C-alpha cells in the first residue's frame, strides 16, 4: 500500500495526466500521417491506372507502326531492286516514308519503356506507402489499447496493483478484439451502405435536374432506379446486422447455419444460385473455429457476387479426421492473379483468420473463368467439442 508520506499522490496525478496527454497527441499525429499517406496512396493509384492506359495505347500504336514499317521496308526493297522501273522521286519517297515510320516506331517504343519504368516505380512506391499506412494503423490500435488500459484500469492505482497482471492480460485481449471488430465494421459500412447512401444523394440531385430538363416521365424512371439502389442499401444493412453474429451458430452448428445464410443470400440476390454440399459427418468445433469458418465462407461468397458478378456459386465442406477442407467456387468474371490487389481488406481479413487457426488458403482464378478459393483448417488439438 502507498502512503502520503512516501508518495505524493498529486504529483502522480500530474505525471499521469501529462502522460495521457502526450500519448493522445502522439496518436493524433500518427492518425494525421496515416490519412495523408492514404490520400497520397489514392492519388498514386489514380496516376498508375492512367499510366497503364497510356501503355496499352502505346502498345497498340507500336504494333500498328511495326506492321506499317514492315510494309514500307518491303516497298523500299522492291523499289531498290527494280530501280529502273521507278522515278527518282518515287525512290526518295519510299525511303523517306520507311525512315519516318521507323523513327516513329523507335520513339513510341522509347516512350513505352519510359512509362513502364514509371509504372514499376509507382507500384514499388505504392507498396511502400501501403506498408506505412498499415504500420500507422497498427500503431494507432496499439496506442488505443494503451490509452484504454491506462484510463480505465490505472485510475485507481492502489487497487489495480493487486491484480495488475490478470487485469492487463484480460483487458488487452478484450480491447484488441473490440478494436478489430470496430475496424471491420467501419470498413463494411464504408464500402457498403455509406457509398450507397452517397449514391442515393447524387441520384436525388440527378432526379431533380431530370425533372426540370426532361419532364416528369424521365424523372419517374430515375426514381424507379433510385428505389433499386435504396433496396440494395437496405439489403446490405440487413446483411451487416446478420453478420454481427449468426445466433444459430451456437445452437445448431456450422452446417445448418451456413445453409440458412446461403438461402438468405439467394433470397436477397435474385438470379444468384448457391449450391451447398457437406461431405462426411459434421463435427462441432470450438466457437472461435466455427465463427471463423462461417466468416471465411461469407467473405468468399460476398466477393464472388460483388467483384466476380457470379450467378452460380458452389460451397463444399469436407470433414476429415483431423481437419476440414472448404472450397468456394464461382462462375464469375475472375481476375488476373498477377495483378491481384493484395491490399484488399477482404483478403487480408481471411489471411488473418487462417493464420490464427494455423491453416492454409489458396486462390485460383483467371480472367473470364471464375475463381476457386480453398481453405484447409486443422482441428484444434484436444479441443474438439464432443
UniProtKB/TrEMBL annotation:
GO terms under cellular component: cytoplasm; membrane
EC number: 2.7.13.3, 3.1.3.-
Positions of the Histidine kinase domain: 184-381
Reaction catalysis annotation: ATP + protein L-histidine = ADP + protein N-phospho-L-histidine
Sorted UniProt keywords: ATP-binding, Coiled coil, Cytoplasm, Hydrolase, Kinase, Nucleotide-binding, Protein phosphatase, Transferase, Two-component regulatory system
Chain coiled-coil ranges: 98-139
Chief subcellular location: cytoplasm
InterPro entries given in the database record: DegS, HATPase_C_sf, HATPase_dom, His_kinase_dom, Sensor_HK_TwoCompSys, Sig_transdc_His_kin_sub3_dim/P, Sig_transdc_His_kinase_DegS
Compartment(s): Cytoplasm
GO molecular function annotation: ATP binding; phosphoprotein phosphatase activity; phosphorelay sensor kinase activity; protein dimerization activity
Matches recorded under PANTHER family: NITRATE/NITRITE SENSOR PROTEIN NARX-RELATED (PTHR24421), SENSOR HISTIDINE KINASE YDFH (PTHR24421:SF55)
Function: Member of the two-component regulatory system DegS/DegU, which plays an important role in the transition growth phase.
Protein name: Signal transduction histidine-protein kinase/phosphatase DegS
Amino acid at each position: 500500500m502507498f502512503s502520503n508520506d512516501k508518495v505524493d499522490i498529486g504529483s502522480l496525478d500530474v505525471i499521469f495526466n501529462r502522460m495521457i496527454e502526450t500519448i493522445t497527441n502522439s496518436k493524433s499525429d500518427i492518425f494525421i500521417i496515416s490519412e495523408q499517406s492514404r490520400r497520397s496512396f489514392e492519388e498514386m493509384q489514380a496516376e498508375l491506372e492512367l499510366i497503364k492506359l497510356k501503355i496499352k495505347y502505346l502498345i497498340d500504336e507500336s504494333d500498328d507502326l511495326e506492321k506499317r514499317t514492315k510494309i514500307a521496308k518491303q516497298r523500299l526493297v522492291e523499289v531498290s531492286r527494280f530501280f529502273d522501273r521507278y522515278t527518282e522521286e518515287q525512290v526518295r519517297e519510299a525511303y523517306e516514308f520507311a525512315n519516318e515510320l521507323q523513327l516513329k516506331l523507335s520513339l513510341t517504343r522509347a516512350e513505352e519503356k519510359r512509362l513502364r519504368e514509371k509504372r514499376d516505380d509507382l507500384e514499388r512506391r505504392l507498396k511502400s506507402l501501403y506498408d506505412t499506412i498499415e504500420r500507422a494503423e497498427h500503431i494507432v490500435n496499439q496506442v488505443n489499447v494503451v490509452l484504454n488500459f491506462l484510463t480505465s484500469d490505472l485510475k485507481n492505482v492502489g487497487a489495480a496493483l493487486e491484480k495488475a497482471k490478470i487485469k492487463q492480460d484480460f483487458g488487452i485481449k478484450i480491447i484488441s478484439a473490440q478494436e478489430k471488430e470496430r475496424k471491420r465494421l467501419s470498413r463494411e459500412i464504408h464500402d457498403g451502405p455509406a457509398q450507397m447512401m452517397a449514391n442515393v444523394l447524387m441520384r436525388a440531385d440527378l432526379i431533380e435536374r431530370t425533372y426540370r430538363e426532361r419532364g416528369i416521365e424521365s424523372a419517374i424512371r430515375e426514381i424507379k432506379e433510385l428505389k433499386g439502389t435504396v433496396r440494395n442499401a437496405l439489403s446490405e444493412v440487413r446483411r451487416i446486422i446478420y453478420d454481427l453474429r449468426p445466433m444459430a451458430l451456437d445452437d445448431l452448428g456450422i452446417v445448418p447455419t451456413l445453409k440458412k445464410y446461403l438461402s438468405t443470400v439467394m433470397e436477397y440476390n435474385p438470379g444468384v444460385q448457391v449450391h451447398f454440399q457437406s461431405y462426411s459427418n459434421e463435427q462441432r468445433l470450438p466457437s472461435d473455429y466455427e465463427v471463423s469458418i462461417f466468416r471465411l465462407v461469407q467473405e468468399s461468397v460476398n466477393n464472388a457476387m460483388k467483384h466476380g458478378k457470379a450467378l452460380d456459386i458452389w460451397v463444399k465442406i469436407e470433414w476429415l479426421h483431423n481437419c476440414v477442407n472448404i472450397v468456394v467456387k464461382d462462375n464469375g468474371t475472375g481476375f488476373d492473379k498477377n495483378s491481384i490487389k493484395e491490399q484488399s481488406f477482404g483478403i487480408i481479413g481471411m489471411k488473418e483468420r487462417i493464420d490464427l487457426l494455423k491453416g492454409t488458403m489458396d486462390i485460383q482464378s483467371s480472367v473470364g473463368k471464375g475463381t476457386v478459393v480453398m481453405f484447409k483448417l486443422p482441428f484444434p488439438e484436444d479441443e474438439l467439442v464432443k
